[in-house]
């Protein structure tokens, strides 16, 4: 170990600082959702490396008083690299850059502390190889620890409060970790070379841990909000089913009573009056007695209610469904799955200007060793996507959870969801292993 402050406090080579900053950005480009395809992303990353090397080498020629502007320029270059490589909003990119900046500081500080411990014993070539190995170890470890906090399903974004908090943590971390290089005359400064390096590495580590915890807390809060919204939608769907079921029972009772009224009307002596009354009554009975019969009371209630809604939009609905095949599902999940699927189908069919073209087909049937639920609808051919996910055209609180609720209900029973769309038909298929339904159907 070298105890001489001069060699110990020597400045880390600028090209190694640039590589640390670039590697930290690449970590997040790898684990987050990318803006472009692989080849374009590689080109952006290589361009970012060249830019960071140029910035750091140029900053190394500036006077000491230009050190802060040089760091700000490097941070701006990192921001440009992250914003180009990751599908994120401006705030989301800023949030990620704060993490990448502190991670780069941690990696460079950790390497330099080890290097200075053996100062004078390592030639420049071995120093570079050692830096790459240490950087690689740190970045791979961080990537493994962080990858679950980022998703490739949606564009990354955060609120202004989260961004401000991350920037505050990064600025405090950078300021405290480098305070000893500016002055040793404070209660938070080190006075010896090895002590200064240790303080910098430790503060950078604590700062990064704080940023990691901040994102975890943010993600958990978002997950809770999503879960609460989805649960609210599920409860709403189930309440709708209960209301519909009671309404159908009431209509069926009235329908049954009307049958008796027919006998009384037929006793009318005037033939023309009797015929007119019978025709009017039968027409009203047909309107109230048009209830779907699938073999499942739950499915009957859901489909009947959705057909009534579809008719308001002039949508023709055809149903070929064996509801007994879905007896293995609890009413809540069945309501969520079929209700959301038909709601989406109605919204899609309603986009067509020509009423005669608005059609929905619902089918529930056994296929080989599986139970298939298929909902098809005509639509205008426009499919909105957020990455690989299809998103709703509607806006506002609660919208956008329909397909996610369908997936959640399907996964609960080992099912899978697939979507096929062309320029006219949109098809949603949910496939369940038949083993779930065999016992219920046989009974």
Commentary on this structure:
The protein has two domains: 5-228, no CATH class; 292-442, Histidine kinase-like ATPase, C-terminal domain (Heat Shock Protein 90, 2-Layer Sandwich). The N and C termini lie far apart (79 Å). It is built from 14 helices and seven strands. The protein is elongated and about 115 Å long. The model is unreliable at 1-6, 395-400 and 437-443 (pLDDT under 50). Helices cover 63% and strands 10% of the residues. By secondary structure, the chain is α+β, with helices and mostly antiparallel strands.
Order of helices and strands: HHHHHHHHHHHEHEEEEHEEH
Radius of gyration: 33 Å
Low-confidence stretches: 1-6, 395-400, 437-443
Largest sheet: 5 strands, mixed
Q: What is the strand tally?
A: 7
Distance between the termini: 79 Å
Number of structural units classed as domains:
2
Q: What overall form do the CA principal axes indicate?
A: elongated
Number of helices: 14
Mean pLDDT: 80
How much beta, percentage-wise? 5-15%
From the helix content, strand content and strand pairing, which structural class follows? alpha+beta
Helix percentage range: 55-70%
Please state how the strands of the largest beta sheet are arranged side by side.
1-2-3-7-6
């Amino acid at each position: 170990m070298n105890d001489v402050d001069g060699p110990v406090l020597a400045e880390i080579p600028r090209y190694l600082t640039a590589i640390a900053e670039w590697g930290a950005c690449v970590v997040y480009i790898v684990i987050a959702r990318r803006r472009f395809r692989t080849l374009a992303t590689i080109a952006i990353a290589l361009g970012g490396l060249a830019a960071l090397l140029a910035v750091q080498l140029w900053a190394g020629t500036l006077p000491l008083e230009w050190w802060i502007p040089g760091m700000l320029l490097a941070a701006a270059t990192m921001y440009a690299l992250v914003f180009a490589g990751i599908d994120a909003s401006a705030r989301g990119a800023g949030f990620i850059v704060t993490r990448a900046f502190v991670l780069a500081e941690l990696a460079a500080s950790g390497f330099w502390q080890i290097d200075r411990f053996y100062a004078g014993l390592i030639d420049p070539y071995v120093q570079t190889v050692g830096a790459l190995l240490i950087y690689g170890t740190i970045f791979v470890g961080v990537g493994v620890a962080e990858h679950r906090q980022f998703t490739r399903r949606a564009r990354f974004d955060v609120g202004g409060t989260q961004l401000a908090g991350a920037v505050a943590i990064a600025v405090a971390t950078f300021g405290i970790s480098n305070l000893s290089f500016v002055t040793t005359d404070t209660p938070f400064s080190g006075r010896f070379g090895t002590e200064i390096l240790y303080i910098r590495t430790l503060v950078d580590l604590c700062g990064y841990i704080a940023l990691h915890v901040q994102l975890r807390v943010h993600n958990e809060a978002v997950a809770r909000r999503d879960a609460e919204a989805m649960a609210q939608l599920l409860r709403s769907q189930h309440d709708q089913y209960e209301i519909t079921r009671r309404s159908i029972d009431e209509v069926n009772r009235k329908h049954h009573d009307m049958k008796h009224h027919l006998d009384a009307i037929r006793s009318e002596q005037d033939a023309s009056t009797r015929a007119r009354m019978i025709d009017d009554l039968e027409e009203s009975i047909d309107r109230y007695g048009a209830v779907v019969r699938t073999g499942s009371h739950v499915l009957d209630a859901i489909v009947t209610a959705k057909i009534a809604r579809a008719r308001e939009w002039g949508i023709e609905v055809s149903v070929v469904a064996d509801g007994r095949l879905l007896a293995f599902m609890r009413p809540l999940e069945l309501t969520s799955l079929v209700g959301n699927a038909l709601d989406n189908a109605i919204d899609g069919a309603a986009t067509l200007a020509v009423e005669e073209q608005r059609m929905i087909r619902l089918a529930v049937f056994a296929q080989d060793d599986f139970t298939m639920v298929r909902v098809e609808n005509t639509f205008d051919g426009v499919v909105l996507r957020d990455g690989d996910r299809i998103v709703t055209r509607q806006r506002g609180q609660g919208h956008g959870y329909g397909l996610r609720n369908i997936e959640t209900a399907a996964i609960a029973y080992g099912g899978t969801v697939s979507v096929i769309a062309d320029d006219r038909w949109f098809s949603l298929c949910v496939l369940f292993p038949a083993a779930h339904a065999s016992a219920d159907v046989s009974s």
